[in-house]
Amino acid sequence: MIKVTLKDGSIKEYEKGTTILEAAKAISEGLARVALAGEVDGEVKDLSYKLEKDCKLNILTFDSEGGKHAYRHTTSHVMAQAVKRLYPEAKLAIGPAIENGFYYDFDVEKPFSPEDLSKIEEEMAQIIKEDYPLERFTLPRDEAIAFMEERNEPYKVELIRDLPEGEEISFYKQGDFVDLCAGPHIPSTGKIKAFKLLSVAGAYWRGNEKNKMLQRIYGTSFSKKSELDAYLFRLEEAKKRDHRKLGRELDLFDIYDEGPGFPFFLPKGMVLRNVLEDFWREEHKKRKYQEIRTPVILNEDLWHRSGHWDHYKENMYFTKIDEGNFAIKPMNCPGGMLVYKRRLHSYRDLPQRMAELGLVHRHELSGALHGLMRVRCFTQDDAHIFMTPEQIKDEVLGVIDLIDQFYSVFGFKYHVELSTRPEDSMGTDEQWEMATNALKDALEAKKMEYKINEGDGAFYGPKIDFHLEDSIGRTWQCGTIQLDFQMPERFDLVYIGADGERHRPVMIHRVVFGSIERFIAILTEHYAGAFPTWLAPVQVKILAILDKHHEYAYKVQKALEEKGIRTEIDIRNEKIGYKIREAQLEKIPYMLIIGDKETENGAVAVRSRKDGDLGAMSLEDFIEKIIKEIEMKA
RNA sequence: GCUGCUGUGGCUCAGCAGGUAGAGCAGCGCACUCGUAAUGCGCAGGUCACCGGUUCGAAUCCGGUCAGCAGCUCCA
């Protein structure tokens, strides 16, 4: 007998060799019915897995990440089986479960069309109906290769060849379909209750643009039809929050054919932007940052010196002035270097925090452009911190706190990644290790969870990246903290230490918003365009009922504007319901309705965007209320 | 940049298999003076992204270019 510790801490005894499914049945029939996989000592296994020793066991259903994962992974196998039935010449690549669904990559002569997707869906339904059990088996390496060669699956052969020696090579079989797969899977195809294929797109084999482009089909599946429908509905709803749509509707910003990737900020968008920048300046002043501004165009030699020529030229724009070669800056750091170098610094002056809202231009691939999220010119809320090596940790911690404080003001959730040395980079391994460890130490001191992004650092140093989510769950890098030993050396930056000698400072590049443009895009989607009062381009709209109320309406507007409140007034000859509807669609936080009663009493009838009619109050009370709200940034 | 899809008045979309464009909203004008999400009537507005080809004739078919969307790659 073996002792199995369950999720609730209770211990059950089973015969050695009991499967997870049998163990689940012993707990309850109901549980066994919805069981999809099991977690044994932290590893996810098939339900048919035999328990051979004392262990911790957690039965996974669709409610758990592991359960969902196995369920969707099996759905992707069903899709592959359907594709092979319909298009036998299709070669299989990889087909994992991902967040919210799954995909499978195929090498086919002719790309899939939307009609093909429907056909594949029908075939999948058939396979599910036929309810094949998924059977796992393993093969020694050479047999595994021979097996896939025989089936004419070159990508699978390549995958097997790349598996480490001695690794168990497992396969899953369902009916006539067999796939190389580590698993786990759910017990049979019939368990899949609701699925849908969502899109086709090209994807490079192994994510390398030098490789062949395969056809990737994305799909998702759920344990109930209602859950699938709810998910699809959520996707539709999320599209309405798209900042590209809202930006145009709310008159904030837009991008025209005349400037692909070069956004226009319209009057209302500028108000929002300026509020953000004001807030930014205020907070940076508190933290002893100085602000500078460096030129957009600087001569080419500077970019040779900084290393950008060697490592970043592909992303840069160049121009000529008279006979000289110039570059349009893709980053602010070289300019910042020149500012630091303008005079000799003492260790007493360090750390020096130099901030710059710098407009940079980068050549992004046309296919990468995405509204304000990915553009070809953007404003970084940059800062370069020059410091002694001893100050690194405190400075990094200070920036982490600053970013966290900013994001919490907006109620953003974020995740953090640590990016390490890329292939194309400058400096010695020792410097990189030192820098990477410094960032790690800071993250660990903060007890922050982070994911390591191998080889994704900047060419001059490793970085901590802060990622925010858009309306449909895609994440975008916003804040970043980059530690740099290279630039100070390249530019021969020095400070005079307590010993009277020259020393090399270390530098941090960091942004909080990231790019103002991207941040505004995220903000717009986060609030679905209904910005909190402190950010709203128009905070109050005054709606007069009749002509005779105009005079008082203007008086109200003047009183509000004297307090710095951003207003608009609607004195058009329209019904009040019409004006309210319009202001509501413009997502203005407060409407003040001005009619006979208000004019007589010096009052305002307040309607909030969120809560509707709030009734009448005195103008003074309203001003006090809204000012408090603005100050609270609520 | 790559793969697929898309491109009709400011916006959202119709326009069957080719015979030189239509609606709603927005805009403008007129009437209505009307209290919490759309008053009525009228008017104007489009080289159907651009270039070329096929055709007696193309928004509709073909090719190219540009732009957008999804994904890949890349990144703030």
In short:
The chain is of the alpha+beta class. The protein has 20 helices and 36 strands.
Characterization of this structure:
- With 634 residues, this protein is α+β, with helices and mostly antiparallel strands.
- It folds into four domains: 2-61, Beta-grasp domain (Ubiquitin-like (UB roll), Roll); 71-239, Threonyl-tRNA Synthetase, Chain A, domain 2 (2-Layer Sandwich), CATH 3.30.980; 259-292 and 329-526, BirA Bifunctional Protein, domain 2 (2-Layer Sandwich); 540-632, 3-Layer(aba) Sandwich (Rossmann fold), CATH 3.40.50.800.
- The chain is built from 20 helices and 36 strands.
- It has an eight-stranded mixed sheet. The chain has a five-stranded mixed sheet with strand order 2-1-7-4-5.
- A hairpin with a 5-residue loop joins strand 27 (463-469) and strand 28.
- Helix 3 crosses helix 4 and helix 5 (141-150) runs antiparallel to helix 6.
- The longest helix is centred in the first third of the chain and has 22 residues, at 65-86.
- It is globular and about 80 Å long.
- It starts with a strand and ends with a helix.
- The model has no long low-confidence stretch (mean pLDDT 92).
- The protein binds one RNA strand of 76 nucleotides through strand 14, strand 15, helix 8, strand 24 and strand 28.
**How many separate helices?**
20
Poorly predicted runs are none
CATH topology-level fold name of the largest domain: BirA Bifunctional Protein, domain 2
Total separate domains: 4
> What is the CATH architecture descriptor of the largest domain?
2-Layer Sandwich
Radius of gyration: 30 Å
Mean pLDDT, rounded to whole units?
92
